[in-house]
Every structure is written in C-alpha cells, then in structure tokens.
Give the backbone structure.
Amino acid sequence: MTTTEKLKLSSEILKKAKEFGATLAGITNVTELMHAPSYTVTPQMPEYNGVGTGKEKLHDNNTGEVVWPEGAVSVVVIAYVHPEEHPDLDYWYGRISPVGNKKLIAIADKLIQWLAQKNYAVNPAQLPYHIERGGIYLKDAAVLAGLGCIGKNNLLVTPEYGPRIRLRAFTLNIDLPSTGPIQFDPCVLCDERCIKVCPQQAFKEKIYSAKQYGREELPGRNGCFDRLICNRQMKLDESIEEFKDVEGHPQPLRVTRYCRHCEFSCPVGKGS
C-alpha cells in the first residue's frame, strides 16, 4: 500500500468511526506505544489485584505486560463521551457491562465489518478492556493518537470533553500514519480541584519516583496517584446495596456506580 493509499485509508477509518457513533477517534503506532509511560512503568510497579483485575489472565506474561495480537502495527482508538448528565452510561448492572462500553464495542465491530466489506487486507483485532485479558493501555494510546493528554487526575483529558470520555481500540497489521500527539495540557496552570475533591485523598503523597522507574512520566504525572487508595473507593462503591429494574431481566439487578469525582470536578470541556 502506498503512502497516499494509507493516508486515504486512515481518513476513511476516522470518518467511518464518527458515522458509526464514535465521539472521537485517532490512530497511533504500536512501536511508539511500546515506549509510552504505562508500558514501561506499570510492569515495574507492585502487583495490583484491585477492581477489574479479578478475571483469570489469558497469557503468561508478567503483571502489567501487554500481549500484542500477532502482526499488530497500528492501533485505532475510538472514544465515546460519558457526560455528567448521563451517568447511567457508566453504571454496572450486576455483571453486565455498562451501556457506554457496549456502544464502544458495537462501534469497533461496525468498523471491523466495514473494513472486511471494503476488502482491505488489514487483519483487524478488537481488543478487550483489561490488560490481563489481552488489552492495551488505552489512555497512552489515546494520547499518542492525538485525543488529549494525561491529566493530574491520572485520566485522559480531551480538549472537547475533559476526562468525561471512555475508550476502546483495535489493531491493524499495516503501518498507518499517526494522528497525534497534540500540544495540549490544560493542567499546567490548573487549581487541581480534581485532586482536592478525591474522597479517599488518593493524590495526597508522592509514592513513585523518576529514579525508581527510569522516567519522568509517572502515575498522577509526578508519581502522586495511589491506585490502591483509589481502589478503596471503588470497593466502597461496590458495597452499596441498590437495585434497579433493567429491561430484559425479570428481577431487579444490583447497580454499581463507581466514583467519578475527579472527572466531574474538571472544568475542561464544560464550556465555561
């Protein structure tokens, strides 16, 4: 495939992603992604068995190490906005995946089906969310694809929607041009309201150092985000007994609403 053909395909993929319902979309390169912060720092961190990691691993790699699909060269990142006024997009009903995540999976499926119908020999592979199940570090991928930056809240912060966004990705076996990163960092001069509003004070102390992990980009940007403390709040959220009627289910299902204080407090993307 020529450079012109690759550029055309990239443009078509991004356009189709929006047509199929994606709020944002971008493309990045696997080789560049392998050197992104999470890929080098996380495997060195203490093992984490918090919320979302309970499923049995599907590979023998060390904790935090990514297993790439065979032949993966590029990553297509799609995003779906989860605004504050529609929190139900992020609710877990029993073990049922949130509505927002289902929308992302459907968008990726449509893109992959479209690629097959167009007879593009790109061998797409949709990725699950969790690293332990064969996923990748989506926030880093989104940054390199030009969707935003990692904020002081340790979340992806986009120019359009702040951190109120969710991500999904699939790989291709062809080297498409990257759409990022972009020069965007609203956190430099912010008042850190996301840190102040945390109910568990997960950003209170610096627990990781550049000397220890070999790079300046650390959790919470400067090593002050403690995922174990954040996990306490997630466990607390899971312990709250609340049930709702869900269409298609004869009995009410338990609802889990995970904390989003740091998301909702961020002024970026609120238009004010």
